[in-house]
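TA notes, week 10

Several of you asked for a full example with nothing omitted. So below is the full record: C-alpha cells for the whole chain, then the designed sequence directly under it. When grading your own attempts, check the secondary structure regions first.
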C-alpha cells in the first residue's frame, strides 16, 4: 500500500521492483497506489500501470488529504491478510519486505522497518524524534520511538478503528488500538534520488502537537485536580455538610493533590 504524491518519475521503477519481489513471495498479491491529489502526472502513470498488471490497484483521491489519510484509504481497501505500507520515493527497498513478514511469522502483529542509518537532514531527524516521542506516550509501547512508514501488519487490525472518522489520522496510533505486539526490524534505507520530502520541520512539529492533543489524554492532566475538587464539593453538597466541615474537607483534598 503506497500513498503517491507527485511521483510520476519514480512509479515505474517502484512497481517493477515490487512485482519481482511480491511474485517471489506469493502468486497472489495486490499493490494499492493511492494518488493523494498529485499535481503532476502521477495518476495517469498509475492508470497505465493498472492496465498492464491487474494486481495493481489505483485509487484517485479528489484532493490532497495528507499521507496518513491516503494510507488509511488504502488500508480500508486491502483484501489480503497482511498489509505492507511504504513510501513512493524509492527509499524503502522492496527486497526488505521479507524481513517484515518474517517478524509477523514470529507472532508480532506490527513490524516496522527502521533504517540502519537515517538519510534525512538534522532538523528533519529532530522533528521525527519529537513525533516518535509523542507516539510513545500515545501508543504506550517502547518501540514507538522507532516507528517507520515502512511497516507490515495484520490487516484485521483495521477492525479496531473501523468506525474512526476524524480527518486527523495517525495510522500508528490507530494500530495501537488493536494490539500491543509491535516490533522493529533494521532494514536498508536508500537515499532519495529525486524530489524532496513533503514534510517540513514546522509541519512535523505541528504533527507531533496534533498527535498529543488528538490521541492522548495528556492535555487533560492539568485539569485533574480541578475535577477532583469538583467531585469533593458535589459530594459535600449532596450530604449537606456544614461550611466549616466542608472547608476542612477541601483543604485535606487539596493537600492530597499537591
Amino acid at each position: 500500500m503506497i500513498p503517491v504524491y507527485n511521483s510520476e518519475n519514480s512509479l515505474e521503477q517502484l512497481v517493477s521492483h515490487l512485482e519481482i519481489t511480491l511474485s517471489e513471495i506469493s502468486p497472489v498479491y495486490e499493490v494499492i497506489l493511492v494518488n493523494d491529489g498529485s499535481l503532476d502526472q502521477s495518476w495517469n502513470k498509475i492508470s497505465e500501470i493498472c492496465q498492464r498488471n491487474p494486481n495493481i490497484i489505483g485509487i484517485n483521491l479528489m484532493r490532497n488529504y495528507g499521507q496518513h489519510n491516503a494510507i488509511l484509504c488504502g488500508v480500508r481497501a486491502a483484501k489480503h491478510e497482511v498489509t505492507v505500507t511504504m513510501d513512493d520515493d524509492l527509499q524503502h527497498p522492496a527486497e526488505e519486505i521479507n524481513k517484515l513478514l518474517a517478524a509477523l511469522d514470529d507472532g508480532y502483529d506490527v513490524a516496522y522497518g527502521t533504517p540502519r542509518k537515517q538519510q534525512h537532514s538534522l532538523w528533519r531527524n529532530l522533528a521525527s524524534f519529537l513525533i516518535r516521542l509523542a507516539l510513545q506516550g500515545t501508543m504506550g509501547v517502547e518501540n514507538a520511538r522507532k516507528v517507520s512508514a515502512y511497516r507490515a501488519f495484520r490487516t484485521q487490525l483495521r477492525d479496531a478503528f473501523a468506525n474512526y472518522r476524524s480527518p486527523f489520522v495517525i495510522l500508528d496510533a490507530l494500530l495501537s488500538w488493536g494490539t500491543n505486539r509491535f516490533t522493529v526490524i533494521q532494514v536498508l534505507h536508500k537515499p532519495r534520488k529525486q524530489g524532496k520530502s513533503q514534510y517540513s520541520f514546522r509541519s512535523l512539529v505541528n504533527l507531533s502537537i496534533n498527535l498529543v492533543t488528538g490521541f492522548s489524554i495528556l492535555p487533560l492532566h492539568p485539569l485533574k485536580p480541578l475535577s477532583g475538587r469538583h467531585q469533593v464539593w458535589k459530594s459535600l453538597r449532596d450530604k449537606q455538610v456544614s461550611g466549616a466541615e466542608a472547608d476542612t474537607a477541601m483543604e485535606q483534598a487539596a493537600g492530597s493533590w499537591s
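Residues 217-221 have pLDDT under 50 and may be disordered. Use that as a sanity check on your answer.
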